[in-house]
Amino acid sequence: MAHEQVHPAPRAGSAGVRSTTDWRASVWAGLIAGLVFMMLEMVMVWLFMGQSPWGPPRMMAAMVMGPEVLPPPATFAMMPMMVAMMIHFPLSVVYGLVIGWMVHRMDMGMAVLAGAAFGLIAVYFVNFYLIAPAMFPWFVEARNWIGAFAHLMFGAVAAAAYIRLRKPRSRV
């Protein structure tokens, strides 16, 4: 009679699984996800809603520049775009740091699920339903499936990028 040996699943801290967050990978993951998010949202707003792709960056810029930069016109303008990126990418890095910390012990599948949940719940719902109505009411108009999907994808992409970029645990 053959005897099967059962091996326990690897624990955090075991070979290949980091016991600490790779902060550099977290920063890059946030930047990558931020770029994907911005392009995805701009293209989806244009394709599915027939609106200008410059509307979402103008909404971001209005957080600093005031509502007078909101469309119309929803055309490209350098200053609102630059201000939007100065808001968007630092926030993407902060969220990337949180996601990296959150998923650093996970495998790719679980990390992507956790990142997607974070993007949808912690980023989209908190920002659009709790913060925006009080501070930036123009974002209430952007409560739609495109915004929800883009934020879900931000989290999923950030988590996937983190897992791919993190350095394996060094062997001592």
Quick one: biggest sheet? none
Distance between the first and last residues' Cα: 39 Å
How many domains would you count in the coordinates? 1
Strand tally is 0
**Main structural class:** mainly alpha
Helical amount: 55-70%
Estimated radius of gyration: 19 Å
The unreliable regions are 4-15
Strand content: under 5%
Q: How would you explain this protein's 3D organization?
A:
The structure is a single chain. By secondary structure, the protein is mostly helical. It has one domain (about 25-65, about 80-165). The chain has five helices and no strands. α1 packs antiparallel against α5. The longest helix has 28 residues, at about 110-135. The chain is elongated. The relative contact order is 0.19. Residues about 5-15 have low confidence and may be disordered.
Summarize the structure.
By secondary structure, the protein is an all-alpha fold.
Task: Identify the notable features of this structure and list them briefly.
172 residues
Task: List the topology elements.
Layout: H1 23-49, H2 55-65, H3 78-103, H4 108-135, H5 145-165
Helix pairs in contact: 1-3, 1-5, 2-3, 3-4, 3-5, 4-5
